[in-house]
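Subject: Re: docking follow-up (zinc ion)

Dear J.,

Thanks for your patience while I sorted out the input files. As discussed at Tuesday's group meeting, I've set up the holo structure prediction with zinc ion included as the bound ligand rather than trying to dock it afterwards. The sequence and the ligand SMILES I used are pasted below, so you can double-check that they match what you have on your end before we go further.
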Amino acid sequence: MAKCDEGYRCEVCGRDVTSIIDSDLYLRFVIGELDPEILHTSPERHLRCNPVLSQFIRCDGFERVVVEGDFGAGTLDPEFVDQRTDLVTRGYLRLQEIAASEHDGDVTSYPLPEAIDRYR
Ligand SMILES: [Zn+2]
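The structure tokens for the complex came back this morning:
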């Protein structure tokens, strides 16, 4: 996705992931949970096709995802949910920033500051 605008196929629904702001892979990368080494070899998914992650995005313009059951925010520790919401939402905003900028495909500059430290 970095090199050109051609989408990658979502392994859940089979449709193309056409933008970085729909990308579960890049969101996990910017928040420090996907090793850059495997970024280009991991299967792509839409954010909404990974509700266990995207339920933590709380942002205007992103329709809230609700997960029922064991992995739903409603059953998790509230403190964890707060931290997770903060991190994942910041990651989502970062993706929007990247999408709006003249990113040159240098993915090492994508992650949040604390995630860049973790990858070092
Ligand atoms: Zn999908």
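A couple of observations from a first look. The helical segments are 24-30, 51-54, 78-100, 113-119. Residues 10, 12-13, 15, 45-46, 49 surround zinc ion (CB under 6 Å).

Let me know if you'd like me to rerun anything.

Best regards,
T.
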